[in-house]
What we know:
By secondary structure, the chain is mainly beta. The chain has one helix at residues 2-27, and strands at residues 31-37, 43-50, 53-58, 62-70, 80-86, 90-97, 107-115, 119-127, 130-133, 139-145, 148-153, 157-163, 166-170, 179-185, 188-191, 199-204, 209-211, 216-219, 222-227, 234-241, 244-247. The chain folds into two domains: 27-118, no CATH class; 147-252, no CATH class. It is built from one helix and 21 strands. The strands form two sheets. It has an eleven-stranded mixed beta sheet, with no helix packed on it. The chain is flat and about 55 Å long. Residues 1-28 have low confidence and may be disordered.
Amino acid sequence: MVKRQHFLAVLVALSAANMAFASVVGASQPVFRKLYSISHNGRVAIQNLYGNVTITAWDRNAVLVEAVKRSNDPKGFQDAHIVVEPTADSLSIRTQYAGTDTDHPTSVEYRITVPRGANLENIALTNGALTLTGLSGPIKASAVNGDIHAEKLGGQVELSTINGQVDADFERTSHGKTISLSSVNGPIRLSIPAGSSANLEAHNLSGGIATDVGRVARRGRGHHLMVKGGTGPQIHVQNVNGGISIHSNVLT
């Protein structure tokens, strides 16, 4: 009887410990989720110091903002505030920090769904990767420490990072919608569709240029590629310490 009571006591203790652990784990990832109305080409600005950002297009005149906070210390959640400022034609999203623990900051991971033609005028990340999918509106995005991966794009684009790679895949291009890609420490890969008739210029200092269009030439310490395609978009690709890869079926 004593052994059975002892066994039951141990089970109760373990159950309590598991419940406590579950509550800590659940509390470590509070979720922010809100929907905001905006025009089909409304302006969206995002600033995030710590954490990845994923932006996906949909066919609705609204922006869905989802965010998850992550921290080793649940007390740190109070230091990271998700600030969303909507107007009739724009939406500003940013993470604002109130604490001073820069060694172990709370990170915020955003998943944002925007109208396909939204104007992403200012997307700025400091420590985190950026993913863009299915957007046809203008994009200006930068990162300091993080990769940028973009696919199924169709508008004017300016992507830049310092420590990371840039990977951009265009579903379509058009005259007047320039494309600019740059990195300091990391490779750049660009893919454009057949029929783009793009005017292309690429340059880097180290890492070389791999391409199936034009002819790569040496210029000083680096490599240079220039292709005059015609009436298509102007494309500029610049790197410092990293290779460049450009592929298209039209610029031959």
